[in-house]
């Protein structure tokens, strides 16, 4: 027991591994939010008039909205006027990665995601978003050959305005919620990908988001379109430097899959969660939504959430096309004072649509982990099928695990199944492993990794390794 | 932020509160009057709940709250059907529109005492308990009842009494030629080491004018007491029934509750809250509903595990046809101290019409680690294989479907331990399934 206690102590006190701050001169807009802010951002990015209009409309709507009160935690004290809405590294327009500030490259090296290494070893095209401006892209040429467009959002606005204009805000309207409205008004940059008809994207598209400049909220916008018969797997991973003031991250991700297209979107999120007393940490309030627009289209969300002070997001799928399918696989781990309120929405509109939800929550310390989900089978969605499983694992007696599943059925040919369990790691499981000569610490790691395996298996290989490592760091020896 | 419904009936109630208080025939304690005033201000502020309230997200009262509703005043019940269950050997207690009707009721056996409105209000230990178990904050329908109820009764089971004969509390409502609103309540106290069975039926002959009933039942189940409760709704079309039930369970007590809605009631809303105040309790909840036509049934259950070593088991099953709507919201709350909790919950629905809707929300909120909690919820159809199997045995398609529906619900009914009551409920089930307007295709 005392050993466990020690381990718990040690674990609780272990500092955030990636907590460091890079000193690069950034161009920062003074804090505040008004029309001028939006005009400044838009002008800075040399945007066409229709986009400025879109932003202004969103801002107007944002200013009329109230803060939500339905979530399972206290809404943090956010003053939107105290946030700086634009920060960009000063040295811009670099021709190649060699020109990137060496300090920045060093930061990536510390994170173990050195671009060169990644390029060589994994064959992944990385579009690095450092704060708000893309500073480097790779494999662009290779992708361009087969017609795949993968670039920063800003570039897409300049080079492919017709695509951006056609799809921007069609899945997540600017009026959707408070943070989507805020994002639509002030989004700085992000990623854009378009996979043309019949193309199977030969590599995993990948982006690393980092929050760096003091007090600069990051408002990413991701738009991904998979045209007829195409396939793409997209990775998103984040680590953030240590910070004492809370930072808001309100991103919007929109995915669109046409007939027979498939999108696989994976996230590993490990932003700074705050210290053990809950001081600091990132507010991760993200709106992620996909539409399976065409027949036989497929969307799959996989997420491993271990970071952030508050994680609040519901990657959702609108199953509009007949025979389309949606998947959601999630592992959310919270410890210390972290809060996760996450889950998904599966909106069945088309015939023969299928969805599958596997959610695994792990809470430790004083943290609270909620699954909130909606499965809605509309009356036109005949022969639809849903399976939901959401399990929670509790470690320690000060934490909480909550589930709020909304299940709605509106036709007589669909089947919806939901099951959920909550338990702690059973003593007999530990005992069984002890018998085989495996100590407590390893036993817990083993059980947790087995518990999360169903989800981790869905991640692309290199991500799965990182995710496994993250879980292990957080959970070793935490059996009480 | 005001989100309530403030319609004509609301205004009528607000206007009649003082008049109603002045017209009370019994002397009320100062405490109760104070509670009423408080509840009245809550209701006045909140209005009737609308779908903007999370707890009323799927149930709208606006169609039920007709303009012409009036508070029930006097009633003639000389010709009333007291809804006796003939095969059941039970002690019969009749409440007509919430008021005790001694001439229609049986004498009570030893160990159990009944107090009518006058007797209840005269005893301060009862009067002061009213609305201390169920508290009104955030519950406008409960506040409405507290402010407006005129009839209240108490059923007390003495300490160490084992009452063998079930007590059948028959709630009957008179058929009048105006639309009426009936708010009333009851308090059940099972003292230490007692055991009793209480069967509550809710009945009225067929209604031409709407009947809106607001019933609040507060229950205390003391140390090592065992209380079996059954709620059987046999209200006809045009009846709107809103119930709030608050149960406090103490050390090692057992509470069983069955909630049967196989009637034609237009709207039924149950808020069943169980607060597990001390260690070692057991709570078993079962429920069954078959909905046809435009029926709407909403069961909200909350089991609040406040102490360690408590067990709960919950199974609710229902069948939906036509344009009906069923809502199930089962909340299990496990407080930080409630270690070694076992809580299981299940809600299964057969959705047999494209126009019907099921909203199921099995919710877990857990703040302790050494627990085993699970819930399951399904929405599905008649199993094709089972149907085919029956058809190969020469059973017609419609008959086979009815057989499957019957067995689906019978799974719940089987858990009613009193055989004659089980038969009675099976009859209700068969009656519901064999009405001419029930077509399964």
What does this protein structure show overall?
The complex is a heterodimer of chains A (480) and B (441). Chain A is of the alpha/beta class and 480 residues long. Helix content of chain A is 26%, strand content 35%. Chain A has one domain (2-475). Chain A has helices at 2-13, 35-44, 49-64, 102-111, 115-122, 140-145, 153-159, 161-167, 178-186, 427-435, 440-456, 461-475, and strands at residues 26-28, 87-89, 125-130, 133-136, 149-152, 189-195, 205-210, 220-226, 231-239, 247-249, 252-257, 262-270, 282-292, 298-305, 310-313, 316-319, 325-334, 339-348, 354-364, 368-377, 385-395, 400-409, 415-424. In chain A, the strands form three sheets. In chain A, strands 5, 6, 8, 10, 11, 13, 15, 16, 18, 20 and 22 form an eleven-stranded mixed sheet that branches. A ten-stranded mixed sheet of chain A has the order 4-3-7-9-12-14-17-19-21-23, with helices on one face. The N and C termini of chain A lie close together (7 Å). With 441 residues, chain B is α/β, with parallel strands linked by helices. Chain B is 21% helix and 38% strand. In chain B, the strands form two sheets. In chain B, strands 1, 4, 5, 7, 9, 11, 13, 15, 17 and 19 form a ten-stranded mixed sheet that branches. In chain B, strands 3-2-6-8-10-12-14-16-18-20 form a ten-stranded mixed sheet, covered by helices on one side. In chain B, helix 7 packs antiparallel against helix 8 (419-433). Chain B is globular and about 70 Å long. The interface between A and B is large, with 36 and 35 residues. Strand 23 (415-424) of chain A pairs antiparallel with strand 20 of chain B.
């Amino acid at each position: 027991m005392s050993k466990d206690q020690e381990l718990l102590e040690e674990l609780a006190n272990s500092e955030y591994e990636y907590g460091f701050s890079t000193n690069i001169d950034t161009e920062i807009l003074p804090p505040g939010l008004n029309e001028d802010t939006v005009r400044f951002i838009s002008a800075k990015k040399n945007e066409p008039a229709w986009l400025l209009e879109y932003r202004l409309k969103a801002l107007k709507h944002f200013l009329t909205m109230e803060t939500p009160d339905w979530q399972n935690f206290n809404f943090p004290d956010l003053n939107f006027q105290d946030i700086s809405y634009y920060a960009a590294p000063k040295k811009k327009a670099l021709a190649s990665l060699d020109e990137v500030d060496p300090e920045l490259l060093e930061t990536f090296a510390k994170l173990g995601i050195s671009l060169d290494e990644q390029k060589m070893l994994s064959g992944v095209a990385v579009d690095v978003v450092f704060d708000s401006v893309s500073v480097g892209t790779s494999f662009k040429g290779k992708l361009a050959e087969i017609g795949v467009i993968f670039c920063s959002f800003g570039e897409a606005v300049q080079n492919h305005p017709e695509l951006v204009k056609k799809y921007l805000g069609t899945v997540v309207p600017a009026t959707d919620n408070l943070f989507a409205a805020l994002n639509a008004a002030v989004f700085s940059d992000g990623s854009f990908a378009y996979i043309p008809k019949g193309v199977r994207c030969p590599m995993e598209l990948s982006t690393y988001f980092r929050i760096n400049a003091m007090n600069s909220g990051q408002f990413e916008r991701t738009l991904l379109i998979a045209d007829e018969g195409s396939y793409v797997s997209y990775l998103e991973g984040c680590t953030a430097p240590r910070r004492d003031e809370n930072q808001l991250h309100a991103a919007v991700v929109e995915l669109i899959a046409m007939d027979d297209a498939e999108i696989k979107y994976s996230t590993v999120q490990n932003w700074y969660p705050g210290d053990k007393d809950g001081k600091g940490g990132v507010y991760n309030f993200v709106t992620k939504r996909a539409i399976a627009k065409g027949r036989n289209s497929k969307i799959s969300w996989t997420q491993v959430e271990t970071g952030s002070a508050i994680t609040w997001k519901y990657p959702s799928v609108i199953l509009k096309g007949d025979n389309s399918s949606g998947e959601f696989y999630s592992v959310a781990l919270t410890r210390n004072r972290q809060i996760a309120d996450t889950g998904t929405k599966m909106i069945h509109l088309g015939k023969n649509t299928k969805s599958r939800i596997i959610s695994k929550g792990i809470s430790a310390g004083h943290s609270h982990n909620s699954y909130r989900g909606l499965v809605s089978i509309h009356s036109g969605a005949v022969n639809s099928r849903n399976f939901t499983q959401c399990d929670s694992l509790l470690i320690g007696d000060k934490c909480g695990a909550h589930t709020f599943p909304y299940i709605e059925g509106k036709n007589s040919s669909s089947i919806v199944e939901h099951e959920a369990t909550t338990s702690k790691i059973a003593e007999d499981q530990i005992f069984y492993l002890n018998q085989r000569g495996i100590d407590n610490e390893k036993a817990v790691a083993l059980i947790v990794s087995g518990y999360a395996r169903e989800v981790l298996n869905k991640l692309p290989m290199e991500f799965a390794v990182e995710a496994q490592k993250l879980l292990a760091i957080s959970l070793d020896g935490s059996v009480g | 932020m005001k989100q309530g419904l403030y319609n004509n009936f609301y205004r009528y109630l607000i206007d009649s509160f003082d008049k109603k208080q002045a017209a009370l025939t019994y002397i009320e304690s100062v405490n109760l009057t104070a509670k009423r005033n408080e509840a009245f201000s809550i209701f006045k502020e909140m209005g009737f709940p609308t779908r903007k309230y999370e707890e009323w997200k799927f149930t709208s009262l606006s169609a039920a709250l007709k303009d012409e509703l009036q508070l029930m005043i006097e009633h003639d019940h000389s010709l009333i059907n007291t809804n006796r269950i003939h095969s059941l050997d039970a002690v019969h207690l009749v409440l007509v529109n919430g008021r005790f009707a001694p001439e229609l009721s049986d004498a009570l056996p030893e160990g159990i005492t009944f107090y009518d409105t006058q007797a209840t209000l005269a005893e301060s230990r009862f009067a002061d308990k009213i609305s201390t178990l169920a508290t009104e904050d955030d519950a406008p329908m409960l506040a409405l009842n507290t402010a407006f109820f005129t009839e209240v009764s108490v059923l007390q089971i003495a300490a160490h009494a084992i009452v063998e004969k079930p007590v059948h509390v028959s709630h009957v409502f008179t058929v009048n030629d105006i639309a009426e609103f009936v708010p009333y309540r009851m308090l059940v106290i099972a003292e230490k080491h007692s055991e009793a069975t209480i069967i509550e039926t809710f009945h009225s002959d067929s209604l031409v004018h709407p009947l809106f009933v607001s019933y609040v039942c507060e229950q205390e189940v003391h140390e090592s007491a065992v209380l079996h409760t059954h709620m059987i709704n046999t209200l006809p079309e045009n009846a709107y029934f809103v119930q709030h039930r608050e149960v406090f369970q103490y050390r090692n007590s057992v509470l069983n509750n069955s909630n049967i809605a196989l009637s034609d009631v237009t709207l039924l809303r149950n808020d069943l809250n169980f607060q597990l105040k001390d260690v070692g309790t057991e709570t078993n909840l079962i429920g069954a509903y078959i909905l046809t036509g435009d029926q709407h049934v909403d069961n909200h259950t909350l089991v609040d595990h406040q102490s360690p070593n408590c067990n709960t088991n919950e199974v609710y099953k229902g069948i939906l046809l036509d344009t009906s709507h069923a809502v199930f919201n089962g909340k299990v709350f496990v407080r930080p101290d409630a270690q070694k909790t076992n809580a299981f919950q299940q809600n299964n629905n057969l959705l047999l019409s494209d126009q019907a809707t099921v909203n199921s929300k099995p919710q877990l909120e857990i703040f302790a680690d050494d627990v085993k909690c699970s819930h399951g919820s399904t929405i599905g159809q008649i199993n094709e294989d089972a149907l085919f199997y029956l058809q190969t045995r020469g059973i017609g398609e419609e008959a086979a479907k009815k057989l499957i529906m019957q067995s689906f619900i019978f799974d719940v009914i089987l858990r009613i331990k009193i055989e004659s009551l089980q038969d009675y409920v099976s009859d209700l089930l068969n009656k519901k399934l064999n009405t001419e307007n029930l077509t399964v295709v």
